[in-house]
User: Which sequence fits this backbone?
């Protein structure tokens, strides 16, 4: 118990040990073990209802795990509110439905948390926000409102908003699933750039091209369990697992 | 002709003309019949009565009133009384509704149960019954000699006694305006685009404006002090009655309490609905950014819930304004009661009711227009919102 929290390996960004999660009687996650080193890019895939989203939502306490341990950047995730706040400050998240604040301009969306949580003065927060909006290639939309942007633009703003907290880990929960096909690549391009900058990333996605290009490891989940963990080449071409091969044939041959 | 009748636009215009014509002749016929009947009873129709003295006393007035005043002055008193009651009723109902509504959305089981019981009980008892209940309760309080007293306030069967400042009425009103300016001016300064500077550099200016307005308020109160009196006018027992202070009549207190509690139960449901309408995704995003629960509430949940609530809230406010006419049930001199007394004394039924209806239309249409403006000003921009 103490070994993990007291001798943190600075290279380890995230460690999950024997985590279980229930929704009522439904066993949503079963004995999840996962270690992610700093700078690593993980792609999580699997059929719907397999627990992918639930797993990454446990990492920043949007869902509460029932047993097992989660240690993020050396901080144990438990009922301690201080720990939860500390982890949320360092872990950014991008959602399937963007979840921008519709009553705030793009710029306000981006400066809100840096000003309230990191206590940055407005001017500094705005400068940083513009820098990240440039990084996601929409600085010209800063004064618009989320409802005036396309889905792809909204998702890029959501990425910039998360980056403005200067997180050490980024979680992506199906970031392109709600987008029209022609907007998927503009979001994926931003994510590829982010990966190239060395960000630690955990992405739940079915974009297998993206997984091939940036993932260090692909994790396949089914019925709440991690079934397979492999580098992309092995995963896509040489998987010996029956369920993995079935899943791949379903999403690749259509 | 036949082809004109088959033309869609011509047909619509004809139908509308027939409808307007029929409605117009109905109104004119009604007015003529009414005039004839009144003439038969020896009542002259028209609005001349407005300038005649009333000859009766009004029980509650914020303006000076005596029986020699004309009817139009009494109508004005009635409208002001209605607005006064409405303002107190709406503000207190909103406070009660917000508290109960938040309790109903709370994650605490006890708070939710209490909130739900409150709504179930008070929404299902007719308002007039609640007005009678509170009025009866207050008039059965102990007499002034045995009043419940605390901090200069006294609760008696003759009403609620409140300590007041010994200042001239006009000075008090002026000070209230200055106090309002102390709140409104800094907000306006923070938002106006007329000053070139960025809003966050205006703090000193806002502070100066607020202090200046507060100083004005104090100065006005000081100048308006009644000579040879103590600063505070506290109600105190003299003989069998309380002297000094301000007496709030039982019927006014009963009406405000009833409207606050009954209206609060409806507003609670509107507040609950507003918070339910806030997307879970926005709250999760705010949480994931590390905002504290209070920040999530004040920056994300409340502003979004308010936008969902406002149109329904406007409806409720208009409804509660109309409910102030229950004043007549307990003898509070609201607009409706003054009109009813006018009809008794002058016999000018149709004219008086016409004025009453026009008055309520003006009050409620202004209220609705105000809310429409606020609604438009804070509406979410764009139509690409999902999730």
Assistant:
């Amino acid at each position: 118990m103490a070994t993990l929290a007291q001798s943190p390996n600075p290279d380890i960004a995230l460690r999950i040990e024997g985590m279980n999660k229930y929704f009522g009687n439904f066993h949503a996650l079963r004995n999840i073990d996962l270690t992610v080193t700093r700078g690593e890019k993980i792609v999580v895939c699997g059929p719907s209802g397999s627990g992918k989203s639930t797993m990454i939502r446990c990492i920043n306490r949007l869902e509460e795990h029932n047993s097992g341990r989660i240690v993020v950047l050396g901080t144990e995730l438990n009922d301690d509110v201080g720990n939860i706040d500390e982890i949320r400050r360092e872990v950014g998240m991008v959602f399937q439905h963007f979840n921008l604040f519709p009553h705030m301009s793009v710029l306000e969306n981006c400066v809100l948390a840096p000003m309230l949580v990191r206590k940055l003065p407005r001017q500094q927060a705005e400068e940083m926000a513009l820098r990240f909006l440039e990084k996601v290639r929409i600085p010209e939309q800063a004064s618009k409102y989320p409802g005036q942007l396309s889905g792809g633009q909204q998702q890029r703003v959501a990425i910039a908003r998360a980056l403005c907290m200067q997180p050490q880990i980024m979680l992506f929960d199906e970031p392109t699933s709600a987008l029209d096909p022609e907007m998927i690549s503009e979001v994926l391009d931003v994510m590829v750039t982010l990966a190239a900058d060395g960000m630690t990333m955990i992405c739940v996605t079915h974009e297998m091209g993206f997984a091939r290009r940036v993932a260090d490891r692909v994790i396949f989940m089914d019925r709440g369990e991690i079934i397979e963990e492999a580098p992309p080449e092995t995963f896509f071409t040489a998987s010996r697992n029956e369920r993995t091969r079935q899943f791949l044939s379903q999403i690749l041959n259509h | 002709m036949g082809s004109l009748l088959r033309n869609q636009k011509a047909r619509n215009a004809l139908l509308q003309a027939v409808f307007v014509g029929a409605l117009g002749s109905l109104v004119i016929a009604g007015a003529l019949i009414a005039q004839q009947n009144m003439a038969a009873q020896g009542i002259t129709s028209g609005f001349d009565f407005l300038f005649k003295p009333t000859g009766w006393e009004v029980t509650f007035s914020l303006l000076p009133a005596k029986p020699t005043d004309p009817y139009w002055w009494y109508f004005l008193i009635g409208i002001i009384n209605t607005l006064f009651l409405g303002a107190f009723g709406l503000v207190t109902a909103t406070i009660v509704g917000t508290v109960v509504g938040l309790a109903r959305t709370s994650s605490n089981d006890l708070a939710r149960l209490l909130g739900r019981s409150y709504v179930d009980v008070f929404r299902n008892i007719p308002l007039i019954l609640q007005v009678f209940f509170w009025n009866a309760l207050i008039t059965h309080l102990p007499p002034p000699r045995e009043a419940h007293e605390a901090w200069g306030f006294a609760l008696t069967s003759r009403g609620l006694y409140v300590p007041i400042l010994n200042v001239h009425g006009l000075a008090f009103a002026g000070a209230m305006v200055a106090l309002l300016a102390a709140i409104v001016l800094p907000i306006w300064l923070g938002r106006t685009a007329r000053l070139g500077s960025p809003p966050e550099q205006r703090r000193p200016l806002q502070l100066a404006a607020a202090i200046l307005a507060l100083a004005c308020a104090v100065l006005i109160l000081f100048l308006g002090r009644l000579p040879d009196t103590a600063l505070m006018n506290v109600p105190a027992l003299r003989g069998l009655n309380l002297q000094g202070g301000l007496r709030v009549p039982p019927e006014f207190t009963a009406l405000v309490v009833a409207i606050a509690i009954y209206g609060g139960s409806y507003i609670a449901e509107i507040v609950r609905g507003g918070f339910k309408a806030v997307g879970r995704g926005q709250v999760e995003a705010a949480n994931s950014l590390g905002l504290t629960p209070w920040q999530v509430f004040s920056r994300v949940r409340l502003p979004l819930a308010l936008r969902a609530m406002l149109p329904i809230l406007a409806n409720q406010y208009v409804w509660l304004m109309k409910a102030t006419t229950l004043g007549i049930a307990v003898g509070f001199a609201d607009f409706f009661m003054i009109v009813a007394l006018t009809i008794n004394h002058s016999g000018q039924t149709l004219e008086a009711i016409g004025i009453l209806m026009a008055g309520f239309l003006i009050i409620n249409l202004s209220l609705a227009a105000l809310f429409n403006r606020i609604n438009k000003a804070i509406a979410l921009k764009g139509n690409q919102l999902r999730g």
